[in-house]
Inverse folding.
């Protein structure tokens, strides 16, 4: 379709999708910078190499993957007109997102229990990076949960139909990005020491 023949609604939808992708690209650049700094810092003499990532981080990885699947199916069911089951899956995604954050804090507790701190005389640069990157990711998950609450509110109001799912699509795309980002971070921390 010629760009000049698109409706105003199609142009607005396209602009909203483009803005989301600009945001995602900027987040990718930020996390790329932090992981690059992690790599550069790993040449320090005081860099920790023999540490175990908290088991809660691994469990939370499976939780965020599962939540991405429930969000995906909620979008698909909305497109098929099954709003009730879609809403149930959105609520499940919300619960899984909250569980992800709880597990992240459990992971921080595990690290602290092993004597690793974010700052202070007993901290290490390695753990400071891990804490920082994980906390910044959690902040973005909180943003994802807020957008999910907006999606749930709009779903309850009947805003989404089989033909109109833009808000759901945008929310799901951001949520999938957060899941992929966390899987990347876990693989990065696991394999690069």
């Amino acid at each position: 379709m010629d760009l000049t023949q698109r409706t105003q609604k199609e142009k607005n939808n396209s602009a909203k999708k483009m803005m989301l992708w600009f945001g995602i690209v900027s987040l990718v650049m930020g996390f790329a910078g932090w992981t690059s700094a992690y790599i550069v810092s790993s040449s320090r003499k005081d860099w920790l190499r023999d540490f175990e990532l908290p088991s809660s981080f691994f469990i939370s990885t499976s939780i965020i993957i599962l939540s991405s699947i429930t969000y995906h199916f909620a979008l698909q069911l909305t497109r098929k007109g099954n709003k009730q089951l879609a809403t149930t899956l959105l609520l499940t995604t919300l619960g899984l997102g909250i569980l992800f954050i709880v597990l992240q804090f459990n992971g921080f507790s595990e690290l602290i229990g092993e004597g690793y701190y974010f700052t202070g005389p007993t901290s290490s640069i390695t753990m400071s990076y891990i804490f920082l990157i994980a906390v910044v990711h959690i902040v973005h998950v909180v943003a994802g949960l807020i957008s999910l609450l907006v999606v749930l509110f709009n779903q309850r109001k009947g805003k989404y139909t089989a033909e109109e799912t833009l808000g759901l699509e945008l929310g799901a795309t951001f949520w999938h990005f957060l899941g992929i980002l966390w899987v990347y971070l876990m693989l990065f921390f696991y394999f690069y020491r």
Summary: The chain has a mean pLDDT of 94. The chain is about 75% helix and 0% strand. Residues 34 and 133 are 7 Å apart (CA to CA). The longest helix spans residues 8-41.
